[in-house]
Specification:
8-stranded mixed sheet; 14 strands; Rossmann fold; globular; 480 residues; binds nicotinamide-adenine-dinucleotide; 6-stranded parallel sheet; 2 domains
Length: 480
Amino acid sequence: MGINRRDFVVKTGLAGLGLAGGSLAHGSLSADDLHRREDAAGQDQPGQTKHTQRFNMSGFAAPPLERVRVAIIGLGQRGPAHIYNMKHIEGVQIKALCDIRPKKAHAAKAKLAGSAHEPDVYTGEEDWKKVCERDDVDLVVVTTPWYMHAMMSVYAMNHGKHVASEVPAAGTLDECWQLVETAEQTRRHCMMMENYCYLPFQLMTLNMARQGVFGEVFHADCAYNTSKMRNNFSKNLYWDMWWLRQYAARRGNIYPTHGLGPVSTIMNINRGDRFEFLVSVESADFMMNARARELAATDEFFRPFAKETYRGSMSVTTIRTSRGRTIMVQHDASSPSPHNLIHGIHGTKGAALYDPQPPRISLGNGAWVSPAKFEKLKQKYTPNIVKKLSELASQIGAGHGGTDLLEDWHLIDGLRNGLPLDQDVYDAAAWSSIVPLSQQSVLNRSDSVDIPDFTVGAWKTNKPNMDIMLERGGNTKILV
Ligand SMILES: NC(=O)c1ccc[n+]([C@@H]2O[C@H](COP(=O)([O-])OP(=O)(O)OC[C@H]3O[C@@H](n4cnc5c(N)ncnc54)[C@H](O)[C@@H]3O)[C@@H](O)[C@H]2O)c1
């Protein structure tokens, strides 16, 4: 199945930005439009040279908020998961809920029945703007399909709100820059909620890396390899089949951050090193079009999907950093292989590997340590934030083994105590930029593509800011 620049028509969610009209996907870009976007996205790197950092958001702390008034936009799968966590966190007031599907919006509000929260419900197509414009909201949580995230996040920051965006935070390079520019201009947090950064083994290996156990970490392997075939072809799981449309609309790694977030934190990306360039290769699609055709044989709903070509079954991207280190990022959302994040850390003195399970540590003699030694290392290097996680999660039970609760709790705790948040807008931009840049590489026969320095040189002096030992704050209670 050939994909070339001339005839490839990309369909993205850019209709909301006024760049495209609707078709099967949420807007289609012609080949000419695509070329223009590619040029804007990378070849002349417009923001790279023009952007002047107005204010360094790395380590930024906003004035403390005793209570955090929250609005949530997008109430499909992910929005309600955040509501569940937020209602259990001290100091949170959920003020507004917004979804264009009234049933989803009201169902989300019903989950708060009997609690202290009495949010207003919004259901109009453009009501998300009204939510951002309210003067009694501090934090907007954006949980719509990801190609809408940047548009909503920028609008929210421009109306004085902090933003917590689901992953990825942006779908184009231009949007990545808009996030950076708006955060610096408004001095509002723009945190991408990369919950995989809070997995216990990922945090333990972050602590080990910080303690020098792996020596100099020079390479990491990471992935989000998990079959989403059933979900993506379900007629009633995601709003308007948006995930399947994205797999038809784009090429490259469209979901890089679950794997990339934790390893970038370990490698101090944007704080001592930065992504410099990437190459991306993808296989042909061996599964999605076949599945669409199979379903279309008996269900006409799937006929338009059977005419689409889809992103390849396996996407492999290699990033090289300015300090000469490398990261391999994979994404496979269709094969029936077991779930795999890899999370392989390779250093001059040791190594770690999360998947395939069980997780393993090497202390550098060419072998993995024994299970007994692993347990000892776990006791020694599990950071305080993970100890807190077990304590909090056991109190209420929460998604992804309590990881999601820890993420929301530490966000709210940071805002209440006026502390820097765990990830900043430069992380959101750099990690999300792999979406458009891997596409650009794939469409150019895997040419190398420069990755902009969203910190404009500040990475050389920025300090690590994920407070995994809970040296500050940590006093926000969980309400059982
Ligand atoms: N971090 C994680 O583990 C994780 C897990 C799942 C999803 N996600 C991310 O969360 C986001 C949402 O995914 P999901 O699974 O909840 O999708 P979903 O389709 O279930 O929910 C999206 C919701 O957005 C609503 N929506 C669409 N346009 C809107 C508009 N203009 N205004 C208000 N609401 C609008 C839809 O009606 C839908 O209810 C995605 O970006 C996804 O990548 C992250």
